[in-house]
């Protein structure tokens, strides 16, 4: 089975050849970025950071090379909300979730990132797990997949990360991924807001874990735009022992779920630790 068939080109392809620093901000804009990243995590701090971001983006920079939270990224400003938000407002971007991972992951830990996008969660986890740990990053969209791989190489995480180009679902086969070229992170298996689609290989999660010889998972994050139930319910039913993560971070999309995912999590021994603005965080006793 071919992993991916692209029926047409969307958005700009990632620049994965120019050296880091090619898209560094000019001195004034770099200072504005530092101020935005340093704003307090409050309502007023958010408003100030947004104003600073708007000022920088008025220069019409489409790509930015910068360090954020001690990690190197090449981030794209025009077609992916997550990249733009993380660059200028990391203190507001899933702050609780990423701090939780930093507190729970250590050298030798295993992290699974389903719907990895450009790799923000994956890089955060890879910095924690060390060369004895593993990060499995699953992303079907070829454009953001290239960005993910480039960000991985910028940080020298090739030995601790594996990148899988596929979707995760309840059966093996080929599925249509609906693309959102104004926000690549919004591409979805269930949304129909766009007619742009690509054909992508899809596998059950246990099949992917077997491929990478994963026998334990310490933490899992999944953000696949409303298809979380299709990916996780078969896994929760069939996985055993150390394959069941201690922490699960799920995009909060119950209106799009066709099955009762919270009930399945509860039945598998999970309790709801916290509901944040974007996610549900579950913990296994």
């Amino acid at each position: 089975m071919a992993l991916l068939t692209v029926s047409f080109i969307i958005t700009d392809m990632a620049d994965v050849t120019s050296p880091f620093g090619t898209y560094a901000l000019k001195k004034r804009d770099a200072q504005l970025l530092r101020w935005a990243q340093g704003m307090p995590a409050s309502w007023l701090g958010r408003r100030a950071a947004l104003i600073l971001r708007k000022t920088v983006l008025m220069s019409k920079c489409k790509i930015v090379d910068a360090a954020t939270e001690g990690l190197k990224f090449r981030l794209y400003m025009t077609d992916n909300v997550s990249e733009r938000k993380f660059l200028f407002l990391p203190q507001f971007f899933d702050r609780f979730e990423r701090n939780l991972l930093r507190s729970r992951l250590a050298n030798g830990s295993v992290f699974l990132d389903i719907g990895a996008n450009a790799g923000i969660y994956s890089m955060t986890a890879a910095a924690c797990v060390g060369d004895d740990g593993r990060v499995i990053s699953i992303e079907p969209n070829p454009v953001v997949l290239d960005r993910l791989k480039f960000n991985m190489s910028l940080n020298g995480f090739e030995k601790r990360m594996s990148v899988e180009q596929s979707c995760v679902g309840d059966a093996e086969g080929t599925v249509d991924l609906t693309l959102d070229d104004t926000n690549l992170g919004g591409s979805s298996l269930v949304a129909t807001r766009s007619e742009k689609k690509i054909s992508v290989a899809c596998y059950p999660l246990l099949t992917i874990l077997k491929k990478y010889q994963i026998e334990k998972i310490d933490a899992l994050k999944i953000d696949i735009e409303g298809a979380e139930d299709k990916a996780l319910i078969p896994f929760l039913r069939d996985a055993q022992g150390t394959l069941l993560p201690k922490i699960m971070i799920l995009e909060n999309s119950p209106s799009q779920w066709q099955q009762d995912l919270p009930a399945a999590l509860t039945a598998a021994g999970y309790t709801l630790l916290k509901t944040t603005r974007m996610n549900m965080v579950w913990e296994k006793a």
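The longest helix spans residues 43-57. Residues 229 and 259 are 6 Å apart (CA to CA).
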